[in-house]
Amino acid sequence: MTRVFDKELSAGELMAGVLRGDADCADAFHRRYGARISKMVWYILGADRDHEDVMQLVFVQILDSLSSVTEPSRLDQWVDSVTFRTVRKELRGRRYRRQVVFSTDAASEVVDLRNPSAPLVARRFYRVLDSLPAEDRMVFVLKYMEGHSLMEMAAISGWSVATVKRRLNRALETFRKQASEDMILSVYTGDTHHVGS
Amino acid sequence: MSVREKTIQDLVNTVQDTIGDGANETTLDRQREAFVQMVEQRRGIHQRRKRMFATAIGVAAVLLLSVAFLYTGSPDALSFVVGESGVPGGPGTFVSSTGNKPTEIRFSQGTRILVGEDSAARMVQVDQESVQVELSRGMLSAAVQGNARTRWVVHAGPFSVSVLGTRFDVNWDASGGRLQVVVHEGLVLVQGGELETHGVTLMAGRTLTADTHRQTWQLSPLSEMRSVDASGGETIEVMPAELIDDARTTEEAMTEDNARRVPEADRDSPRRDVGAIREVERRGIQSDPCQQKDYAACIGAARDQGWDTVLSNGTADELWRLSESARMIGQTALSNEILSALRKRFAGSSKAKLSAFVIGRTLMDASGDHAAALKWFGTYLQESPQGPMAEESYGRIITSSLRIGQTGRARQAAQVYLERFPDGLYARRAQQVLAGP
Question: Please, are residues B43 and A20 in contact by the beta-carbon 8 Å criterion?
Fold first, then answer.
C-alpha cells in the first residue's frame, strides 16, 4: 500500500501525525528517514546480518522517544542521534556477548556481506574496524563514510567537538596501524609494515 | 584533506562500492509496513491507556495508602531469627553452619538467607535503610523480598554484592580468594576486588567468578556450585558439562596474560565448589600454531600432516582448535567438516554438543543458509537444552525463522525465549515478534 501526500509534510506535522498514530504520517516518516537510517547502520556495521534488526530497533527507539523532541526543525539530527545511540549499543552489546558467551569466537567477523565472495578488502576493512572501540569506529564511519563534519558529529553523538576530534584521531591512528599490518589493506593505505608472506 | 586521509578515503570508497549503501527497496518497503503497523498499534494502546487511566489513579491511591500504613504500622519490620529454634538476632550476630546442615536466617518481612554447610556469616547492620551481611567463608543463598527501600548488601572479602530484591547465591572461598555469584532472579551489582570501577551488574541466569589472586574475573551463563536453595532444603545444581568447557575457554581468553605470569601451583583450587575455574592446559603453547592462534599456520600444519590422519587421530581439543582456525581464515566449510568429524568421533562429549551450535552459527552467518542453520540450532537444543548457548540458539532461531518466512516457528521460539530468558539480549526482539501481525 502506497500513501502519497499532496505536499511534503513539515517535520512538525510528521511528528504530530506519528505520535497520534496516523498511518499516512508513519508511512511518510519512514520514507523520509528509512534510507538515511539504513545507510548509517549499514556503513557502521558493515553489511551486517543484523542490519534489518538494528534498523527495526532504531524505529522502535524513535517511537519511544519522539515525544521528547522539542525542536522539530532539528528532527533530522535527532534521528541521526537515535540511530547513533542504537548502533553504539548494539556494538557494545556484541563485544559483551562475545566476551561473556563465547569467547573462543571473539575474533570472528562481524561483517556478513550479502555476497560471501565479495572482495576481500571489505572484509578486511571491517575486521580492522571490529578491533576499534565502538565509539572510535562510529566517528570513523561518520567522518569517512558519511562525510560529516566535526560539528555535525558532535551534534549526532552528543559529545564535545574536542572529544569527537580526539576519538577520530585515535581511530585514524589505530586504523592506519592495523591496516598497515594487513597485506591487502596496506596496498590502499600505502604503508607496508606487514611481515611474512 | 591530507595525503594520509586521502588514502583512507580511497579505501573507504572502495569498500562502499563493494557493500552498497544500505537495504534494498524491498526491504525498506517491508520495514515501512512494519513501522506503520507499529504506529497504529500504539494508537490503540494509547486509547486503551486513556480509558484505564482514571481507574488506575483510584487504585494507586488506595495502594499507596495501604503501603504507607504498613510501613508506619510495622514496628519490627526488619527483625530476624536464626535457625530452626528461631533464636532472635541483631546486628553483630554471627551465624555458623557446621557439618552438612545449612542454617536459615528468617527476616520478618519475608527475606530468607541460608548460610550453607561449613560456612559462616555475620550480620553487620540490620535496619530499614540497609541490611549488611559479611560472608566470612563458604556459601550463602539469599531470597530477598525487596521493598525498594532497604538496601541489601553481602560482603565477601574485598567484594560486595548489592541488591534490592532478588534471589542469588554467593560463594566465597576465603583461602583461595575466589568469589562466585549466581543470580537466579532479578539483578545484583557486584563491586570490589579487581572488578570494574563501577562494578559488574549481573542479571538472572548469569554467574560471576572473580579471583583475587589471579586478579581476574569472568562472566558466564551459569556455573557449577553446590547450592542451598533458599526456598527450602538443599539442592545440588548440576552444571552441564559443556558449561565447564565454556567457562574454561572464557577464562582462557580473558585471563591469558595474567595466567601466563602465574605459576601453575598458585592456581590450584582447594575447593570443589569453585571447580568451574578449571586449569587451562598450556602444554606446547610455544610450539603449537593452533594454540598460538596462528590460524593459517595451524591449517597449513594439518594439511601437511594429512587431513585423514588429523581427523582420525586428533583429540577433541585439537579438532576444536583446528575448526576455529579454519573459521578464522574464512574456510567455513572446512571448519564445519572438522566439527562434523569431531561430533562423530566424540559423540556425546561437551565439545560435540557445542559443535552443533557452532555449525549452525557458521551456516547462518557466513553462508546465510538459515534453513540448515535452524536444524543445527535445533540439534544443539535437543542435546543441550540447558546448555550455555541455549539462549543464543533460541535467539538465532527467531532471526533465522523470520528470514525464511517461518513466522510460526519464530513466534514459538520467541515465546520459549521470553519464558526462559525474560531479561535476555533477544528479549526485545522476541517481544516484537510476538506483538507483530
Answer: yes
Residues 306-325 of B with CB under 8 A from A: 324
- Interface membership of B296 toward A (CB under 8 Å): no
Indicate the burial class of B316 (C-beta count within 10 angstroms; 0-12, 13-18, 19 or more). Answer: middle
C-alpha A33/C-alpha A79 separation (Å) is 8
Helix (H) or strand (E) holding B136: strand B130-143
Query: Residue range B282-291: average pLDDT?
Result: 52
Q: Do A101 and B254 touch (CB under 8 A)?
A: no
Q: Which three cell numbers stand for residue B330?
A: 574464512
- Answer for the pair B78, B109: CB distance below 8 angstroms, yes or no: yes
Q: Is B407 left (phi over 0), alpha (psi -120 to 50) or beta?
A: alpha
- Which residue of A27, A52, A99 is in closest CB contact with B254? A99
**Cβ-Cβ contacts under 8 Å, B36 against chain A:** 23, 26-27, 30
CA distance B21 to A77: 19
pLDDT digits (tens, 9 = 90+) for B336-352: 889 999 999 998 888 89
Grid cell at residue B200: 559488574
Nearest-CA neighbor of B415 among B386, B400, B435, B387? B435
pLDDT bracket for residue B356 (50, 70, 90): very high
Which ipTM value was assigned to this complex? 0.82
Question: Side chain identity at A18, as an amino acid letter?
Answer: V
Question: In chain A, which residues have their Cβ closer than 8 Å to the Cβ of B32?
Answer: 27, 30-31, 34
Q: Which of A40-44, A116-120, B55-59, B150-154 has the least mean pLDDT?
A: A116-120
Residue of A nearest to B19 (CA): A47
Mutate to test the interface with A, among B19, B246, B380, B397 (most CBs of A within 10 A): B19
Considering only CA atoms, which of B272, B315, B65, B59 is closest in space to residue B176?
B272
pLDDT one-digit tens code per residue, A158-173: 999 999 999 999 999 9
Dist. CA B23–CA B257, nearest whole Å: 42
Interval A66-108: pLDDT, tens: 988 888 888 999 999 999 999 998 888 776 544 433 333 333 3
> In this structure, are residues A180 and A194 in contact, taking their beta carbons and an 8 Å threshold?
yes
Q: Is B250 in contact with A103 (Cβ distance < 8 A)?
A: yes
Q: Which amino acid is at B156?
A: A
DSSP readout, B247-301?
Answer: HHHHHHHHSHHHHHHS-GGGG--S-GGGTTSPPPP-TTTTT-TTTTT-HHHHHHH
Using CA atoms, how far apart are residues B221 and B276, in angstroms rounded to an integer?
Answer: 12
